[in-house]
Amino acid sequence: MSRLVGYSRPWWPGEDLTADIEHLAEAGATATLTDAGVFEAPLDDGSALRSLEPGDTLLVFSAARLGSSLPRVVQTIAELGRRGIGFRSLAEPALSTDAGPADPAQVFAALEGLRRRLASVRTRQGMLHAEAAGRRPGRPSVMTPDRVAIAEELRRQHRSIAHIARVIGVSPSAVQRALAVPA
Fold first, then answer.
1. Could you tell me the residue ranges of all domains in the chain?
2. How many CB atoms lie within 10 A of CB 22?
């Protein structure tokens, strides 16, 4: 008997999979498997995907949940096919194996979209790792503590933002951000 089985796993520690699981249930998944291991780890023999049987169809919201790189995702989908398991993606329907042949242009577009999504996820993971290590991700501020002190003093003298920016050699938007009251 064939089953439509949903699958998800977190992209970063502590990620809530509730929305993913709800989308899968709405799409007809009779059960949903999850892996506790985060996205960076390859799917191994302990993966929930090992419980799928020939004739089942795996349903994911996005194929990006299957691996951290495009080759790894394609390898996982191919492995499922070798095991007699169909594949369906809600976000990338052209990659689904249970709908028959797809237009090659749609497949290439889906792969490109998947590549972008994976790059975005890896960027977000890097930012989370940097924050966890106490580093502020992104470009360093041009507003050094000395510049902020000068800007605050000039503002107390009722100088315009444009004037302050010219005096300390930064953009007016940098001065506005530095002088903004934190929420």
1. 4-132, 145-179
2. 13
